[in-house]
Amino acid sequence: MALPYLMLRLLIDFADVPLLVRAATLGGLIASVVAFATGGSPLDPAVTLFIVGYFAAVSLYAAFGFVRLARRSSGVTRRRTQAVASGMGLFGLAILVASVSTIVPSAAGFVSGLTQVLALFAALSWVLGFVPPAQLRRFWQQPELRSFLERAGTLPRLPTTEAILRELERGTGASFGTRAAIGLYRADGEVLNFANSYGAIAADVPVDGTSLAARVFRSQTAEYFPDAARANPENAAAYREAQVGPVLVAPITAGDRRIGVLETFAAHQPVFSSDDLALVELLADQAAVILESRALIDEAARVQAQEAAARLKEDFVSAAAHDLKTPLTTLLGQAQILELRAGRDASLAPHQPAIGRIAREARRLSALVEDLLDASRIEEGKLEVRREPVDLAEVLKHLAERSRPQKHRIVLEANGRLAGSYDRRRIEQLVDNLVENGLKYSEGEAKVEIRAWREDGEIRITVRDHGIGIPAADQAHVFDRFHRASNVDARSYAGIGLGLYICRGIAQEHGGRIWVESAVGQGSTFHVALPGADEGKLN
Ligand code: ADP
Questions:
Q1: What is the four-CA torsion angle of 103, 106, 109, 114, rounded to 10 degrees?
Q2: Ligand 1: does its nearest atom lie under 6 Å from the Cβ of 374?
Q3: Could you give the C-alpha distances from 269 to 11, 18, 131, 393, in angstroms and in order?
Q4: Could you tell me the pLDDT band of residue 535, with boundaries at 50, 70 and 90?
Q5: How far apart are the CA of 136 and the centre of ligand 1, in A?
Q6: What is the C-alpha separation between 537 and 539, in angstroms, rounded?
Q7: Least confident piece of the model among 119-133, 137-151, 238-252
Q8: 493 CA distance to ligand 1 centroid (A)?
Q9: Looking at ligand 1, which atom is closest to the CA of residue 496?
Q10: Which residues of 59-80 are buried (b: 16+ CB within 10 A; e: fewer)?
Q11: pLDDT of 326-338, one tens digit each?
Q12: Mean pLDDT across 226-245
C-alpha cells in the first residue's frame, strides 16, 4: 500500500515536488488504506478502481519526475536515473495491467503472469539504477571518460591555465555525471584556491583547516565522504546551500610537488560508490600530468621571451652605442681643445672649471660608449685581439704611473720581465678596469695593490683592494653582463656592470682565466692568469 508513497519520497530526495502533490499522495495513501480496511471482500469495483488509479498515477508521476531528472544530468548519473525512471514506469504499468483482471475476470491467468514479468523488470531497473554492479557502472562511465582522456593530450596547449582547469573540471564532472572543482595550492597564503567555487563554498580554503579538500591535501590520500555536512559539520550550512552531499576528493600531485586537489560532488546519495575512488584518483593523476606539462610550457615560453628581450636590448644598446660614438668623439675632441686653450688664455680662466667639467664628463661618456661597444663585440665573439710580443711588467709600470686622481693609492710589485704575446691595449684595459674598481669600491686612502709574477709557464696578475668586498652569492655572477653585487647601488657607486664582463672577455680571448676571492668588508683580490711565452723565447 505504501509503495507509491515511498516512490514519491524517493523522488523528493532528488527533485522538487510541489506540496500539493505530496499532500495528495499522502491523502491517497490514507484513503486507500481506509477503503481497503473497511471494504468487504471482494472489494467494490469502484474502490478497486480508485486504488489502482492511485497506484498508477503516483508511480507514473514519479517515473516522469525521474525522466526529467535524467534529462538534466549527464554521464553515468543520467544512465542510472534513466534506469530508475524505467523502474517506476514499469511498476505503474504493472499495476495498470493488474487492474485489467477486475474488468475482464476471464483474463486473470494471463494478466497475473504479465504483471509479474513487468514487476520483475521494474525491480531489476531499480537495482541497476540505485545499486548498479561495478562492471555496469564502469561501462556507463566509459563514453564520457574516453572522450575526456582523448582530449587530455591537447589540454596543456589551451591558452590559459584557467581554461585547462575548467576543462579538467568539466571532463571529471562528465565522467561522473556530477559537478567537479579543482583547488590549486598557493604557497604564499597556504591555501587551496578554487577559482570555480560553488555557491557558499569559499574560494580560498586554508590547508590547515577542517575542510575535506584540506584534509585530503594534508594526508595525500583520496577519500570518499558519503555526506559532506556530516564529515565537516563546521561547514554544513555552506554545503547545504551549495547542494553538496556526497564528495570524492583526490590529491593532485606530480612527483614530490603537491599541486592541489580534485573534488567531485553530487547533491544526493547514492551517486558514488567506493569503487569511484580509483577513478577520481586516476583523473587527479591525469590532471597532475596536464598541469605539470602546462607549467613546463609556460616556463619554456618565459625563457624564450626573456631571451628575445635580452637580444632586443643587446641590439638596441649596440646600435645606440654605434650612433653615439661619432658625435661623442667630436664633442670630446672639441672639449679637449677648449681645455687646452683655457689653460693658455687668461681671458678664459673664469670658464676653466666649467670647461674642465665638460671635458671630464665627455671622457666618461666616451668610455661608457666604448664599454658598450666592447661588450657587444664580446657577445658576438668579435672582440679583436692584435697580439704582439709584450713585456707585461712594462705595461703594468706604465699603468701604475699614469696620471690619475687616485694615483698615489696604487702600489705595484712586479719583478723581471713578464713576456708573452698579447694585445697590449686590451691587457692594459683589463688591468686598468680592475684597478679602477679597486679604487672605486674602497674607502679613503686604502691601497690597491697590483702584483705580477710568472708561475708554471703562466703570467699571474692580482689586483687587491681593502674595500667593501663582494657577497659570496654574487661572486659567481660579477663577471656576467650588467650584474652588480647586492652591496652596491647606483647612487653610491657609479657603474653599469660591464667592466668585469669585458675583463673576462679579454682574458678568455687571450686563452687565459680570471676569478675573484673576496670577503665582505675586508676587500677583494682579482686574479688573472695568462699564458706566458716559453722561457727560452723571452728575447
Ligand atoms: P661596475 O663597476 O660598473 O658596476 P663591473 O663589471 O666592473 O661593473 O663590476 C661588477 C660588479 O662587481 C660591481 O657592480 C660590484 O658590485 C662588483 N665589484 C667589482 N669590483 C669590485 C671590487 N673591487 N670590490 C667590490 N665589489 C666589486
A1: -40
A2: no
A3: 12, 21, 11, 91
A4: low
A5: 72
A6: 6
A7: 137-151
A8: 9
A9: 3
A10: bbbbbebbbebbeebbbbbbbb
A11: 999 999 999 889 8
A12: 88
Cell of 451: 702584483
Write the single-letter amino acid at 285: D
Ligand 1 site, residue 498, Cβ cutoff 6 A: yes
- Helix axes 352-379 and 276-344, enclosed angle (nearest 10): 140
Cβ atoms 514, 459 nearer than 8 A: no
Instruction: Please tell me the distance between residue 514's alpha carbon and the centre of ligand 1 in angstroms.
Output: 14
Is the minimum distance from the CB of 523 to ligand 1 under 6 angstroms? no
Strands 410-414 and 448-455: parallel
Is residue 470 lining ligand 1, measured as CB closer than 6 Å?
Answer: yes
pLDDT value for 538: 45
From the CB of 519, is ligand 1 less than 6 Å away? no
In order of 142, 248, 391, the CA distances from 416 in angstroms are: 87, 83, 9
pLDDT, one tens digit per residue, over 461-500 is 999 999 999 999 999 999 998 899 999 988 889 888 999 9
| pLDDT of 103 above 80 | no
Q: Are 207 and 214 in contact (CB under 8 A)?
A: yes
State whether the Cα torsion 71-74-76-77 is positive or negative: negative
CA of 502, closest atom in ligand 1: 6
What are the CA-CA distances from residue 237 to residues 196, 232, 243, 405 (Å)? 19, 10, 10, 79
Atom of ligand 1 at shortest range from CA of 485: 16
Mutate to test the pocket of ligand 1, among 374, 477, 478, 515 (most ligand atoms within 8 A of CB): 478
Rounded Cα distance, 223 and 372, in Å: 61
- Contact present, 243 and 269 (Cβ < 8 Å): no
pTM for this model (two decimals)? 0.58
Pairing of β 448-455 and β 458-465? antiparallel
